[in-house]
Amino acid sequence: MDFIWPLVGLAAVVWSIDLLYKKLKLEAGADPAVRALLDQGSVWANVKTIASVIAAKIVEIPPHAYLLCALSTLVAYAALAWYDRIALIHLKKQNGISWFYIATCSFVTYALSHNIGASVFSGGMVRYRAYTAKGLSAAEVAILVALCSFTFAFGTILLLGLVLVGEPQILGPLQTLSPWFAINPNVARLVGFGLLAFCALYTLGSWRHFKPIQFGHFEVVYPRLPIVLRQYFAAPLELMGAAGIIYFALPEGSPHFFIVLGAFLMSFSAGLLSQVPGGVGVMEAVFLAIMPSVPAPSVVAALLVWRLFYLILPLVMSLPVVLLFERSQLAQAAAPIEPKAPV
Question: Which of 125, 131, 195, 216 could staple 161 via S-S, CB 3.0–4.6 A?
Answer without folding.
Answer: 195
